Recover the amino acids of this structure.
């Protein structure tokens, strides 16, 4: 573990979700967290891979923990994690491949999306609600779609689903909906003219009617993934992993 000097003031205590962890030396961990108060931040957990007493359950993703941490001297964005205690683990996510990949997709989106501290605090509640819903119904796509839609609002890139992005026409009045990655949402018949090749997703029913249709919802989540990747020119590996697993073992899932 790197040589670390921490401030001597009282440690901060709050609830946080574990988003990711990576080795730091032989027995420590870099842990990326979503705190209820601090938002996204990175901490180093000294000797975490050896100390069962200080880090119960080993700081696993999808775990809600109560953490105690201090600010590291000469570092503006790294904290020293002194201990963590489990509050809740959403165990069903790890038992169902679809729920597990959806959870990792949410983690990846949070980690890779730029947001201010207030935005990250809002995402804490959205993420908690999504994990509760996925844990209750691990084969459903709706929790992931609802989370992505609200997250995209927080980071300022939410696609327009109900109105044409070009003219404002209510697209739910049309028999089907075409969504464009380039334009940022739905485009009506009048505006799209002969440009259908530009449209990445065709829904055969209005957006408002598909929230209980698993096939259409998965298409919509795919659109959101493609849209995010287009906007930020970065890959989302968790969704790609789920599609690969689904294509290979779909009948067994």
């Amino acid at each position: 573990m790197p040589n670390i000097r921490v401030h001597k003031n009282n440690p901060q205590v709050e609830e946080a979700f574990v988003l990711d962890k990576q080795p730091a030396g032989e027995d420590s961990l870099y842990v990326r967290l979503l705190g209820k108060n601090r938002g996204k931040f990175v901490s180093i957990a000294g000797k975490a891979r050896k100390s069962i007493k200080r880090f119960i359950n080993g700081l696993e993703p999808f775990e809600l923990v109560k953490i105690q941490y201090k600010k590291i001297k000469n570092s503006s964005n790294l904290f020293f994690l002194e201990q963590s205690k489990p509050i809740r683990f959403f165990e069903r996510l790890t038992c169902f491949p679809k729920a597990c990949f959806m959870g990792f997709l949410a983690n990846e989106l949070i980690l890779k999306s730029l947001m201010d501290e207030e935005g990250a605090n809002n995402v804490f509640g959205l993420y908690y609600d999504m994990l509760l819903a996925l844990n209750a119904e691990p084969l459903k796509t709706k929790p992931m779609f609802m989370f992505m839609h609200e997250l995209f609002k927080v980071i300022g890139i939410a696609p327009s689903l109900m109105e044409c992005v070009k003219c404002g026409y209510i697209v739910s009045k049309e028999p089907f909906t075409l969504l464009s990655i380039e334009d940022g949402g739905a485009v009506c018949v009048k505006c799209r003219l002969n440009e259908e090749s530009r449209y990445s997703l065709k829904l055969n029913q209005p957006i408002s009617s598909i929230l209980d249709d698993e096939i259409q919802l998965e298409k919509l989540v795919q659109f959101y993934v493609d849209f995010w990747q287009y906007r930020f020119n970065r890959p989302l590996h968790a969704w790609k992993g789920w599609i690969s697993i689904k294509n290979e073992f779909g009948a067994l899932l």
Observations:
- The domain at 92-252 is CATH 1.20.1440.120 (de novo design (two linked rop proteins)).
- The radius of gyration is 21 Å.
- Residues 122 and 156 are 13 Å apart (CA to CA).
